[in-house]
Design a protein that fits this description.
Chain B: It is a multi-pass membrane protein. Chain B: Its main location: membrane. The complex is a heterodimer of chains A (383) and B (330). A four-stranded antiparallel β-sheet of chain A has the order 1-2-3-4. In chain A, a hairpin with a 2-residue loop joins strand 1 and strand 2. In chain A, 55% of the residues lie in helices and 14% in strands. Chain A is globular, with a radius of gyration of 27 Å. Chain B is 79% helix and 1% strand. The longest helix of chain B has 38 residues. The chains are: A alpha+beta (383), B mainly alpha (330). At the A-B interface, helix 6, helix 7, helix 12, helix 14 and helix 15 of A face helix 1, helix 7, helix 8, helix 14 and helix 15 of B.
């Protein structure tokens, strides 16, 4: 603003000056967004994550089949890649080769072999299995299906029961991401309360809370989670187990964030505007929420984003060893339970595809966290 | 120094006491208690009709009918005074017998992992700081991202797969078949060391990724200090200069996070143990949880956490010795 000389009228601003004016009058959140946008890797990560979240949310449409639908004709089947050309020429519409069952001459076991002369075409948004989106909206359309209702397209192969790995992974994405979100939300609320009380009250209460926090931090976290998860009664329904898992993950995820909130509150609790609010008779909850927290909201968001990977990895690890979610619920960890041995890598490597989702999701959250951290303080001078 | 040590020692004891309370609470969470599970396991399928009175008798026999406070003091008293961690019902013997020498194996894995972590991360981190913005520096950044993102059980599986392909040997587990049940001997120890590298590498993976970044960051700060410029102006050879000034200080954050590393290693241990077929405390802990054998689980959780608390204590003392400023601040 100071750069605008008195004799220039607003209409004669150069492009450079207009840019500056826009910059100086932008709100804090706009500045954060502008800076975040320049972080290319973080933008890419955010897009990947958005695609993941949307496919998880609309799993009923994106996945061609249900998570437990079995294809008895295609057990432990390899991924089928849709193609445009084969020995019999090309087609505009992608297709896969039909599968026929033959008997192995030596072992007499039924084996599925692709039949190169039979083409089954892929249709988009075709009608297939009826289901309810998020259990509410009735739906029969699927992102892609084969035109022959008896044939199934297994983009990423099938497991030993003939269940479609692609469909299961999409459904698992919903479960795993939502557990992460709920877990982070629970730990955020706990961190807000615990860190808020410690940082605002200070004194003896603060020391006691610090001790307890230290005790929780010192216990190895996965064994601790395991102990709580093991206590879940075996007869619980899948829904109960799901919510219990989010509770367990959230229950011990708060110490890092609580520590951050506490130290920030301690550093500003004697600022003039806080004292003024106190003297005006505001209640502590209002002073913390209305006057103190907004000064470091962006840092809290960073901490929340980077705590996602721990939630996701913990859930995956617990389900992987059979202490977390249980079939028929599908999560990335539950799917990877089938991939516990070296034999699986050799014979059915496509069962590891859910692991790629875990790695990509964790990487994406980490990169976004880095981008946000750079952007969180838009007034710093690394501009 | 004596006062500093005493203060830390008292802090350690208080933390351990609080940890024991927490572990006890976790042991209490699963529905039913030892008497229920013991009766169920012992008499199910034998045709004997177990009544509530029988279970009450077992309960009274084991002192489980007392209020929770008293049971806690019974439990922790047994551990502190007699080294008695209670009964392992799934094995029908004492917890101490079940754990046996698994505690030492776990410590072996722990120290092998720490050794790998520091032997790799300190030199590589220093090198990355000296050659900032080189191709290797960027490569290491990507590696650090992967270090966090790759679930370690996946890494374990992949390494196991390649180890099987390239070396062909049975690489999983901690011992070869002929030594598994053999009494301890030099040959057995050597056999264990040959198997130890795989779990050590898997467990060290994420710690290495993290510590390289820490060393690199501190080292970068220290390299810009005047002391380095002065030493360079005096004509001190570059290698000697690096070791004498910035590298000495770059080790401090590593020392201060030893407890943190141990915590992470123990956290990952049960999962990695399942994949690699290790027979140590992590695997036993997982089995105990699945059987709801809570005395075994509690004992292991307690031992693991005590090790972490103790390593924190050691790291405090080491740091105070390396960096005398810490002592004054405390």
């Amino acid at each position: 603003m100071t750069d605008v000389t008195p004799e220039t009228t607003p209409t004669k601003l150069t492009a450079e000056e207009r840019r500056r004016q826009k910059f100086y009058s932008a709100s804090q959140w706009t500045l954060i967004w502008w800076r975040f946008r320049r972080h290319k890797a973080a933008m890419v990560a955010a897009m990947i994550l958005a695609v993941m979240a949307i496919s998880g949310l609309f799993a009923e449409v994106v996945a061609p089949y249900g998570p437990t639908t079995r294809d008895a004709k295609y057990l432990d089947g390899a991924p089928q890649i849709p193609m445009f050309c084969d020995q019999n020429g090309c087609s505009m519409r992608p297709f896969v080769h039909g599968v026929s069952t033959k008997r192995d001459p030596v072992t007499l076991r039924a084996v599925s072999v692709p039949d190169p002369d039979k083409r089954v075409y892929v249709h988009f948004f075709a009608k297939g299995e009826a289901n309810h989106i998020l259990g509410v909206i009735p739906n029969t359309r699927h992102l892609f299906l084969l035109d022959d209702p008896k044939a199934k397209l297994h983009l990423w192969g099938t497991d030993d029961l003939g269940r479609d790995v692609f469909s299961r992974t999409i459904y698992a994405t919903r479960v795993s991401l939502s557990i992460g979100v709920l877990g982070v939300m629970i730990s955020f609320v706990l961190a807000l309360i615990i860190g808020g009380v410690a940082g605002y009250a200070g004194g003896v209460l603060d020391s006691v809370i610090q001790r307890v926090t230290e005790v929780i931090r010192v216990v190895p976290i996965i064994p601790l989670y395991m102990g709580l998860a093991a206590a879940m009664p075996k007869e619980w329904s899948t829904t109960q187990v799901y919510f219990a898992m989010t509770l367990i993950l959230g229950l011990f995820g708060w110490p890092t964030l609580a520590r951050r909130i506490r130290s920030q509150l301690l550093s500003i609790r004697n600022e003039d505007y806080v004292v003024a609010a106190r003297l005006a008779g505001a209640r502590p909850a209002r002073i913390i929420g209305r006057h103190m927290l907004p000064s470091f909201t962006s840092f809290i968001i960073v901490d929340l984003v980077i705590s996602f990977p721990y939630m996701i990895l913990s859930e995956t690890a617990l389900s992987f060893v059979g202490l977390g979610l249980r079939p028929p619920t599908v999560s990335w960890g539950v799917l990877l339970q089938q991939a516990q041995s070296v034999r699986v890598i050799e014979q059915t490597p496509w069962l590891f595809i859910p692991a790629i989702f875990v790695v990509v999701a964790v990487l994406a959250f980490t990169v976004i966290g880095d981008g946000l951290r750079d952007a969180a303080d838009p007034y710093s001078d690394s501009h | 120094m004596l006062r500093f040590t005493l203060e830390r020692l008292i802090g350690m004891v208080i933390t351990m006491a609080l940890v024991s309370v927490m572990v006890f609470l976790i042991m209490e969470i699963p529905p039913g208690d030892y008497a229920d599970r013991y009766a169920f396991r012992k008499y199910s399928g034998t045709g004997v009709n177990v009544t509530e009175a029988d279970i009450q008798a077992i309960r009274a026999d084991l002192g489980l009918d007392k209020p929770m406070m008293l049971r806690y003091f019974d439990w922790i008293g047994g551990i502190v005074l007699r080294g008695d961690f209670g009964q392992a019902f799934a094995f029908e013997t004492s917890v101490v017998k079940v754990i046996g020498d698994k505690g030492w194996l776990t410590l072996g894995i722990l120290f092998a992992t720490l050794l790998v972590t520091y032997l790799v991360s300190i030199p590589v981190g220093i090198f990355a700081a000296v050659r900032r913005a080189s191709a290797m520096d960027y490569g290491l950044t990507i590696f650090s991202y992967l270090g966090l993102a790759l679930p370690n059980f996946l890494l374990a599986l992949v390494l196991l797969y390649f180890a099987n392909r390239w070396f062909g040997a049975d690489i999983g587990g901690l011992f070869s078949d002929q030594y598994a049940d053999a009494p301890w001997s030099l040959a057995k120890v050597w056999d264990m060391i040959k198997h130890l590298w795989l779990p050590a590498v898997v467990l060290a993976w994420s710690a290495v990724a993290y510590q390289i970044q820490t060393v690199r960051a501190t080292m970068s700060d220290e390299l810009n200090k005047l002391s380095v410029t002065v030493a360079r102006a005096r004509g001190v050879p570059e290698t000697k200069l690096l070791i004498k000034y910035p590298a000495r200080l770059a080790i401090n954050p590593i020392v201060s996070t030893i407890g943190f590393d141990v915590n992470r290693i123990f956290s990952e241990l049960p999962i990695v143990a399942v994949v690699l077929g290790l027979t140590e405390l992590g695997e036993l802990l997982l089995r105990a949880y699945l059987d709801l054998d809570m005395y075994v689980a509690g004992a292991i959780l307690l031992l693991l956490t005590f090790t972490i608390v103790f390593m924190n204590f050691v790291s405090d003392l080491l740091l105070a010795w390396l960096d005398p400023r810490i002592k004054l601040g405390a």
